[in-house]
Write a structure and sequence with these properties.
Blueprint (H helix, E strand, L loop, with lengths): L72 E5 L6 E7 L4 E7 L10 E4 L17 H14 L2 E5 L5 E5 L3 E6 L3 E6 L3 E3 L55 E5 L9 E5 L8 E2 L3 H11 L1
């Protein structure tokens, strides 16, 4: 038989000493319906239900957060013996995070043990949508003509071509070299815009190739210290340049420093004369 209890004012059910006591009010029924607002004043609310359905389209968390303390907010999922999973707002990092955690949801912070994956649609339809790895891989492969090849080009416009399935490794000893694994090796020329310091050796390893030092425009190549010739030439170089200077076994000039010039003696080699040899020659010639 249905019964209705009606009062003209507030109605209180109190057990023992009320909220500060240890007694409970138990509703034992198939359905308990509250017609009107439900306010629960306490420290915790536990729902032992198999299914939770909420009409409210927006769930508000951390209601009384005044932003005076660092409070993380989100959803935590228990996983039994494994670390729990959480998707939450990390106040300290001002970002949403998907993580595994040892936190149990009783505090105001989440302790991350590891980041975890989030799956998104394969193909984003808006510029602000998150993209899947599959989409990114496809887009990279589809750009630049399918990415079947690309070139690595140095300052001198020489380049090395890289095709699908090949790796690029940069090495450096005498040159900066792009090694195309599965392909060939290419030397890439590069220029420096700063002064070189602590350089003890400059070597050209190509057979019979020149090593050129050149200044810009009207500038000069300036040597502030001693030039040392570590070896003597076995013969005269041809005077294809304007002037060449080299060391050779000393002859009549007594210096062992030779030169040739395209405008002097038809480019024939001559030895620079030492001061003592010049003085003796001047005396001899009167």
């Amino acid at each position: 038989m249905a019964k209705t209890l009606r009062t003209s004012g507030d109605y209180t059910i109190k057990t023992g000493t009320g909220a500060g006591g240890s007694n409970s009010v138990i509703f034992d029924s198939k359905t308990t319906r509250v017609s009107g607002d439900l306010i629960v004043d306490g420290t915790s609310t536990t729902l032992n239900t198999a299914t939770l359905t909420i009409e409210d389209p927006i769930i508000r968390l951390a209601k009384n957060n005044t932003n005076t303390v660092d409070i993380d907010s989100g959803i935590l999922i228990e996983r039994g013996v494994d670390n729990n999973a959480a998707f939450y707002w990390n106040e300290g990092e001002t970002s949403f995070k998907a993580v595994l955690t040892t936190s149990d949801g009783t505090g105001t912070s989440i302790t991350d043990t590891a980041l975890t994956n989030i799956k998104v649609a394969t193909t984003p339809t808006d510029s602000n949508h998150a993209a899947s790895k599959s989409y990114v891989d496809t887009e990279i492969a589809a750009s630049a003509g399918g990415m079947t090849s690309f070139d690595i080009v140095g300052d001198d416009s020489t380049g090395a071509s890289v095709t699908d399935g090949q790796d690029v490794k940069f090495t450096s000893d005498a040159n900066l070299t792009a090694v195309i694994v599965g392909g060939s090796t290419h030397t890439i020329t590069y220029s420096l815009t700063n002064n070189l310091t602590n350089i003890h050796s400059i070597t050209n390893s190509s057979t019979n190739a020149d090593l050129t030092l050149s200044a810009n425009s009207s500038g000069s190549v300036v040597i502030d210290d001693v030039i040392t010739f570590n070896a003597n030439r076995s013969g005269d170089p041809s005077a294809t340049s304007v002037t060449k200077v080299w060391a050779q076994t000393p002859g009549g000039g007594g210096t062992g420093i030779y030169f040739n010039n395209t405008s002097v003696s038809s480019g024939a080699a001559g030895e620079m004369i030492s001061k003592s040899k010049a003085t003796a020659l001047a005396i001899a010639l009167g």
